[in-house]
Amino acid sequence: MLDTIQDLRSILFGPNSQQLLMDSVSHLQPYDLAQILLALEYNEQQQLVEILPLDLATEVLEYLEPEVQYRLLHHASPERAMALLRTLPSDTAVDLFLAIHPRQAELLMGWLPDEYRERINTLMTFPEDTAGSLATVDYIAAREGWTIEKTLAHIRKVGRKAEVISYIYVVNARGQLIDVVSLKEMILASPQTLLSEIVSNSPIVVRADSDQEEAARLLSQYDFLAIPVVDASNRLVGIISVDDLVDVIQAEATEDIQKLGGSEPLIESYLKTPVLTLFQKRVWWLLVLFFAEAITGNIMRHYQDALTEVIALSFFIPLLIDAGGNTGSQTVTTLVRALALGEIDIEDTWQAVKKEMATGLLLGAVIGSAAFVRAEFMGVATNLGSVVGISAFFIIAWASTVAAILPMVLHRLKVDPAVVSGPLITTLVDGVGILVYFNVAKLLLGI
Amino acid sequence: MLDTIQDLRSILFGPNSQQLLMDSVSHLQPYDLAQILLALEYNEQQQLVEILPLDLATEVLEYLEPEVQYRLLHHASPERAMALLRTLPSDTAVDLFLAIHPRQAELLMGWLPDEYRERINTLMTFPEDTAGSLATVDYIAAREGWTIEKTLAHIRKVGRKAEVISYIYVVNARGQLIDVVSLKEMILASPQTLLSEIVSNSPIVVRADSDQEEAARLLSQYDFLAIPVVDASNRLVGIISVDDLVDVIQAEATEDIQKLGGSEPLIESYLKTPVLTLFQKRVWWLLVLFFAEAITGNIMRHYQDALTEVIALSFFIPLLIDAGGNTGSQTVTTLVRALALGEIDIEDTWQAVKKEMATGLLLGAVIGSAAFVRAEFMGVATNLGSVVGISAFFIIAWASTVAAILPMVLHRLKVDPAVVSGPLITTLVDGVGILVYFNVAKLLLGI
Q1: What is the C-alpha to C-alpha distance for residues A34 and A16, in angstroms, rounded to an integer?
Q2: What does the pLDDT look like over A219-260, one tens digit per residue?
Q3: Which end of chain B is flanked by fewer CB atoms within 10 Å, N or C?
């Protein structure tokens, strides 16, 4: 990459720059060229965007952050800026317009053809995280009455700007989606076949106001390369291509993992996130958990006499509350992921809870026995083994049950179940764990 | 779906079944038809596979488990079984052959043409989780000397079986990959252009022995629909399409989430996993953590005198060890995910550790102050507030540091950092936490 940067520096402002440039970058992927651009000085970046072939410049632009896109467009020659903006994929353009100041966006949008601007405006109305917010209008539409031959000619004409040319979207005069026909079907059919002979009137679609996860789920279930997005009247709003959904799938998993770990999800990538942001994303949950956990101290104070009498009781507190927390963390992560993947849903609540309770009883029996042996072996007080063993059994069974019920309830309430993190479950079961422990102790030790 | 099942039942064995069948299923996606097939009786399933058009039958087969695929092939008429096997995508065929008994697999493979069998045999040699194990040989290859026109004609001829027709793989006489040309480029170019005029000799590839995550990372970085898989001599082994990698991305995230929650990853989906398997996946980690945590009990025993003197010290043990565990869990989940996404790598170790230490100091200051206030407010012993506050500060700073270093070290040792789960970090920092707490107590309380 360093070589290429040196090469570019010596070429960019010299004679014959366009030809020399193509010789040194034609073997690069747009993504890599974007990384190289970012390593250049601002004026070199501008010059690169100015003299690259338009299609390649647009593709490079797609991999840059909206702020960088805007800076490059703002300082480019007016003709170049307009051309770039018009060839930019519509989903990238929408992200750009939403990221910059509304007045700047308005100015840029003024350069777009009227009809295109209207469609972009529609895309901009969909709230974040909905399927509509991911849609692009750069799809290829066709009419039922067209032959394959006519459709292929149409693809040749408009295909350059299309996000996906693997599918043709057959719409009627009102813009309603009739069916999706794959390029494969068309290439394999005879040129005189009418599209109406291939369509089957039952495309798989996603509603623009659905959650983006729904789009990701459908796409991965049906192995499509793109999925059409429609409005309430089945009018085609746009399409979402698989590469955009791969990003969504990764981002949703990242968000769930960070939430399950007990912090608010980060917006930027790790290295770009400053310490103060990391701090802010974590401190609130730590404080909430801290105050919830403070109750456990009050419960323990209530059993001060028992503790004073058998000080060895305190030795097993970390063991018992961690055993509960660990079991709860295992259950909650498994269920939250199963919910996110759609492997289980509301109607499976009872089955999941039963399963986790059964698993919890088995785990409780094993860890309870281990705890019994451990406490007996320590030899600190008569009967303490039974107290610790029985408590461990109940605490683990309880933790599994709570950790199964909570995410299912939140899912039913349409709250993201990933807020039930491992740390939250640990904190929630601690108080009950301490209660169980001291009551078993009072009963068995007669204190 | 119930309607369709009733429909099928009344049609399958009746007169004119093939025509009636197409009328009632032509609007369905293969995935949906596969779900319907699974709801039918065995003999109905066989009949459905027998009379569906071959292409559709194959597509339905792709969505079934290997055991079901084998049963259907085994009981189908010999001609049908052979035809199905030959049209099955090669990655699906490989998964089938690897899942059934080697002798059954050998029998089925005997039905394949020699050259195809050899390529399948090569695919079967790649270990699980490598890029090679995901590859399919159902790609379209072309030679540099071909014109666009000839290539398009070739696509029409062989495209039916191809997994992806969006890319053509240009290879030389030794089978080495020269470049990947997109169907879009070809459709937009003039028919007489030679492929050699379009190729650039620098395709992005993945080595067959690379980890499948590497393939997923490249594909999502470059927004490709498929990525070529090559051997050490740059010979084209196969391709991996984006829909297969979406499954990999989902599966890898699921595995990480389950590991981070402190259990071994599940192989099957949640509802299909029996209680005993859930138990087995969880119990070992719980036991390991249990024995590690048992050490904390020994440490506490060491401070028995201090505890007896100031019994209130025990009230804050759950609070302190949970605060450490929670902070550690936040750090570890964030870093493990950043490593999985390639956002950070070995060379960023020091930067990540510094960042987490700084965040830990800030969090320690806030939670330490809260702990001070809480302990003072409880009014159980003089100076206890300072003890609890100072301990909380050190414990949280320590937890952040350990939770940052461990995943980075494991990553460097090429061990999956996700084994450092939230529960593991909690357990690891507990012992030190108790040590810190009692030593601060001895120092400040003079006990």
Answers
A1: 22
A2: 888 988 999 999 999 999 999 999 888 888 888 899 999 999
A3: N
In this structure, what DSSP letter does residue B414 have?
T
How far is B242 from B245, CA to CA, in rounded Å?
A: 5
Q: Which of A28, A250, A298 is the closest to B220 by Cβ?
A: A250
Q: Which residues pair with A147 in a beta bridge?
A: A194
Question: Is the alpha carbon torsion for A209, A213, A217, A220 positive or negative?
Answer: positive
Helix (H, G, I), strand (E, B) or coil at B206: strand
Q: Which uninterrupted H or E stretch holds A292?
A: helix A275-302
Instruction: Name the residue among A335, A338, A325, A339 with its Cα closest to residue A398.
Output: A325
Q: B156 or A386: which carries more pLDDT confidence?
A: A386
Taking CB atoms and an 8 Å limit, are A341 and B269 in contact across chains? Answer: yes
3-state secondary structure of A20: helix
* Per-residue confidence (pLDDT) for residue A330, from 0 to 100: 93
Search chain A and give the residue with CA nearest B60: A222
Rounded CA-CA distance A266/A280 in Å is 10
Structure tokens at A131: 């399927």
Disruptive mutation site among B62, B161, B267, B290 for chain A (greatest number of A CBs within 10 Å): B290
Query: What confidence category does residue B139 fall into, taking pLDDT thresholds of 50, 70 and 90?
Result: very high
- Is the domain A140-241 a CATH 3.10.580.10 member? yes
What is the per-residue pLDDT for B217? Answer: 87
Q: Beta-carbon neighbour count of residue A398 at 10 Å? A: 20
Count Cβ–Cβ pairs < 8 Å, chain A vs chain B. 369
Residue A250's contacts (CB-CB under 8 Å, 6 or more residues apart) are: B220, B249, B253, B341
CATH homologous superfamily of B270-445:
SLC41 divalent cation transporters, integral membrane domain (1.10.357.20)
Task: Indicate whether this model's pTM tops 0.90.
Answer: no
What superfamily does domain B2-125 belong to in CATH? MgtE N-terminal domain-like (1.25.60.10)
How many other C-beta atoms are found inside a 10 Å radius of the C-beta of residue B412? 12
Give the distance from residue A298's alpha carbon to the nearest chain B alpha carbon, in angstroms.
8
The pLDDT, as a whole number, for residue A7 is 82
CATH number of the domain at B141-241, out of 3.30.310.50, 3.90.226.10, 3.20.20.150, 3.10.580.10?
A: 3.10.580.10
The verdict on a CB contact (< 8 Å) between A260 and B263 is no
Amino acid at site B148: I
User: Which two three-digit tokens encode residue B203?
Assistant: 């395709």
Q: What pLDDT is recorded for position A421?
A: 87
A99 within 8 A of A108, measured Cβ to Cβ = no
pLDDT band at A14 (very low <50, low <70, confident <90, very high): confident
In the block, tokens 């309880």 appear at A398
Helices (H) and strands (E) in chain A, counts: 22, 6
**Dist CA B260 CA B419 (whole Å):** 7
Q: Which of A178, A162, A99, A158 is nearest to A133 (CA)?
A: A99
Give the distance between the most distant pair of CA atoms in chain A.
96
The reply to whether residue A370 touches residue B258, judged by beta carbons under 8 angstroms, is no
Q: Is B189 helix (H, G, I), strand (E, B) or coil?
A: coil
Contact check, Cβ <8 Å, A326/B254: no
A441 band by pLDDT with thresholds 50, 70 and 90: very high
Residue A220: its pLDDT value, please? Answer: 85
Using DSSP's 3-state secondary structure scheme, residue B176 falls into: strand
Element (H, E) at B240: strand B236-241
* B156 has a pLDDT exceeding 90: no
Taking the CB of residue A268, how many other CB atoms lie within 10 A of it?
11
From B23, which residue of chain A is nearest by alpha-carbon distance? Answer: A200
* Residue A180, strand partner residues: A169
Whole-complex ipTM: 0.82
- The answer to whether B275 contacts A359, with C-beta atoms less than 8 Å apart, is yes
Show residues of chain B in contact with A423, CB under 8 Å: 322, 325-326, 329-330, 422
